[in-house]
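STRUCTURE:
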């Protein structure tokens, strides 16, 4: 999914625009799916002491701390390259409120839009789990999904109600609902359901193409948001074939760095444009595109090594300071 977005933003070789929409919807849904009913959130449940429940800032930082340093650095690179002249927009990008909050899209760094809306999702998720009883949460999530999906189709041009913002919220809530549903299905039935859902997905896609209904379905938001993305998630999580394919060492290794690819792909692209003297934002030939992909992957592997080293050093220093204090 990330590679679809990377290619969409950099080349003109037949990558459809809606592939980026599919990728982002997948990310939102899988985020809601993985967070819901996690054992890590037992402290939110009834009977837990307030002191054991994490505060909002702690909860948000725990979600974002692995990707925020890379996002901050890549945004700084784009700012230095002159991608914005406004200090207010720079601060909004740093604070992750540049898209979906008070503006529809005022990003320096392309991935900022996803992270800004995901931050809203996390805040809603925290409020739900902090203040809504466990037995009522699925129903509240269902209401939030229906309302946000409807507002997304209306496509209002209002702060916090922008069409893309509502799409991100509705897909996140759909991921939560999908997890609630899977929890009610015995584990031995999940793989058959995954296999059947994959067949349904393939048949629906084929029928849509044959009968020319794909555009109408996509424009309605039903095919991608409510049918295709959930079936992809079910097939991936509970199936056997897809995980086996993506567990192959080269793909698994690339998958471990995939979030770095997402965070850094715009910054690396703009730096490469300067180096090779490309005047536009697009690469016009396949060889330049291949060079870009090689440079991006190599950079992200190198960056992850450096960041891992820095994190270990900071952690060691923190432990040393704590021991001295003790």
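SEQUENCE:
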């Amino acid at each position: 999914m990330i590679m679809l977005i990377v290619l969409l933003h950099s080349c003109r070789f037949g990558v459809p625009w809606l592939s980026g929409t599919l990728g982002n919807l997948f990310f939102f849904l899988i985020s809601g799916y993985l967070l819901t009913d996690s054992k890590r959130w037992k402290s939110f449940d009834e009977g837990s002491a307030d002191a054991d429940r994490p505060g909002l800032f702690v909860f948000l930082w725990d979600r974002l701390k692995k990707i925020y340093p890379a996002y901050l650095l890549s945004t700084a690179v784009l700012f230095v390259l002159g991608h914005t002249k406004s200090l207010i927009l720079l601060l909004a990008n740093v604070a992750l409120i540049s898209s979906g909050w008070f503006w529809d899209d005022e990003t320096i760094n392309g991935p900022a839009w996803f992270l800004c809306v995901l931050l809203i999702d996390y805040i809603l998720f925290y409020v739900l789990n902090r203040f809504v009883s466990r037995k009522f949460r699925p129903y509240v999530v269902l209401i939030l999904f229906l309302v946000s999906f409807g507002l997304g189709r209306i496509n209002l041009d209002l702060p916090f109600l922008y069409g893309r913002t509502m799409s991100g919220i509705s897909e996140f809530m759909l991921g939560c609902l999908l997890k609630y549903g899977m929890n009610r299905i015995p584990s031995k039935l999940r793989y058959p359901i995954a296999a059947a859902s994959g067949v349904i997905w393939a048949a629906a896609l084929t029928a849509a193409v044959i009968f020319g209904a794909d555009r109408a379905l996509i424009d309605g938001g039903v095919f991608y948001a409510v049918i295709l993305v959930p079936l992809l998630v079910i097939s991936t999580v509970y199936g056997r074939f897809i995980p086996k394919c993506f567990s192959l060492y080269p793909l698994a290794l690339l998958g471990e760095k995939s979030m770095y690819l997402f965070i850094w792909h715009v910054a690396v692209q703009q730096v490469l444009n300067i180096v090779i003297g490309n005047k536009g934002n697009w690469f016009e030939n396949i060889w330049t595109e291949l060079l870009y992909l090689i440079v991006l992957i190599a950079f992200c592997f190198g960056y992850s090594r450096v960041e891992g080293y820095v994190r270990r050093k900071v952690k060691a220093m923190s432990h040393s300071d704590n021991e001295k204090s003790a």
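REMARK: The two ends are 47 Å apart (CA to CA).
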